Amino acid sequence: MSQASSTPAPALRPQFCFDERLLRDFLRLSRSTIDDSITQNLNALVTPAREGFDPSSTAVRQTGSGAGKQIDPRACQSFKDNVLFSSWQTRSDVLNYCAGVATSPDPEDPDLILRQTESAKDRERVVDERLDPYSARFFPQEARTESLANLVRNQRMVEEIIRARTWSLVSERCGGAPSHWEDALNGWRERKQQ
């Protein structure tokens, strides 16, 4: 039985966060490995051979591939503890780190001087809205920390949705789990600290 494994955490540096494509790719890969393929991961935990081979089972086509079967509680717990929760924790750590980067000053922002110049020009500008009603419009360039903060906020909402969907499938197949994924994840964190 080959169990899925969580995506290793990237080296957390501000450059990683500011490369939004790289950040998105990491999150996408981690989600596709565990959450997007949760049904396959759970099916891999079912061990039909343990019950013994029933020759009559080949007389009727089996369409569920174990989808309705309860999974051995030990296999479920091992999957949740070693794969699912560690994957979620890695993504949480990355998003928390990048959120911190987004709220910190960014002295290395390549567009900082350009934005400061635009802001100074904007303050000096005289606008006569009677002549040009659109002249008062000014669209300042967004700082990369603001862009990163928006990305992190959006990705956290995506995480909420994905984790709720994944947890409903895990609860259905494994049973005996807390009703909400946050409770289960917090319980796992507490157990790890002991």
UniProtKB/TrEMBL annotation:
It holds the Pfam family MIX23. InterPro entries: MIX23 (IPR019171), MIX23_fungal (IPR016805). It comes from the Eukaryota. One of its GO terms (cellular component) is mitochondrial intermembrane space. Residues 49-72 are annotated as: Disordered. Residues 55-64 have a biased composition (Polar residues). Belongs to the MIX23 family. This is Caffeine-induced death protein Cid2.
